[in-house]
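To illustrate the input format used throughout this study, we show a single complete record. The first block contains the structure-token representation of the backbone; no residue identities are included at this stage. The design step must infer an amino acid for every position from geometry alone.
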């Protein structure tokens, strides 16, 4: 039996981490100084270099944010590793979702470890003063992967419930 799970997981993870690192490097070199918007598609999409010492949406826990979110990320990666190990070769969508989430988590973890300034964010989306929090490629991968993983796990749960209920209906006496 061919082991296709690693052949699907690792290339996606590596591409996510590489694209994230490459785009962040470009942002740090081309978008200086910080917080100056560069229009890409008018006001709707801009590139704006910012450093986020906290987590998603600028969530911050003070002076120890970097350490706290590093530890939380490592814990999340351990949980994701268990999910990966429990995934069968034929569960393609689950493998892809896990690779996206892990790749994005690793990309942002690298930033937290390498710089006390925090995670490099640069994708600035919105209209006028109504802006979505600035994000990066790793954030996109984590978000897409998390949505896919939630959907896959929900579908697995529904299938399990249907399987567990099915024999009960078959054994129930007819009225």
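Output of the design step:
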């Amino acid at each position: 039996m061919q082991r296709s799970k690693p052949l699907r997981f690792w290339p996606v993870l590596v591409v996510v981490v590489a694209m994230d690192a490459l785009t962040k490097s470009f942002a740090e070199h081309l978008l200086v100084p910080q917080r100056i918007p560069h229009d890409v598609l008018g006001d709707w999409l801009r590139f704006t270099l910012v450093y986020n010492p906290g987590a998603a949406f600028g969530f911050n826990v003070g002076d120890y944010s970097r350490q706290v979110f590093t530890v939380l990320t490592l814990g999340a990666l351990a949980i994701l590793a268990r999910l990966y190990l429990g995934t069968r070769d034929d569960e393609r969508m689950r493998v892809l979702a896990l690779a996206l989430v892990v790749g994005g988590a690793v990309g942002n973890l690298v930033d937290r470890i390498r710089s006390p300034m925090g995670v490099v964010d640069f994708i600035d989306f919105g209209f006028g003063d109504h802006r979505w929090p600035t994000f990066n490629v790793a954030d996109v991968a984590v978000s897409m992967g998390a949505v896919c993983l939630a959907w896959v796990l929900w579908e697995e749960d529904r299938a399990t419930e249907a399987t567990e209920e099915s024999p009960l209906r078959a054994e129930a006496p007819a009225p």
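Structural context for interpreting the output: Residues 5-162 form one domain. The two ends are 47 Å apart (CA to CA).
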